[in-house]
Amino acid sequence: MGSKEKLNLRRLVMDVDKAVSAPSLIEVASAIQGCEGVQACNITVSEIDIETVGTNITVEGAGLDYEEIVRAIEKTGAVVHGLDQVIAGDRILENVPRAR
User: Domain of 74?
Assistant: First the structure.
């Protein structure tokens, strides 16, 4: 891949926390959907405590811009804590667990 070619990000899986009161999951989804290349997103609540809601966010599309997506999420008031999966290329390749 040449230095001028953009990485074709197809799937991002992120660990994102938000306050219990706001933003709503719909607001976060709407912000993500407004980003270039996004075809679908899934926001799943993974844990809830007194003040925060932990979520796993999966974004799929073509030519995703990770930085733009993070900015959109954080503009809503949510915080991206980690990137747990990246799939890049011409198609989505699922993880194949190694047998031990």
Answer: 9-88
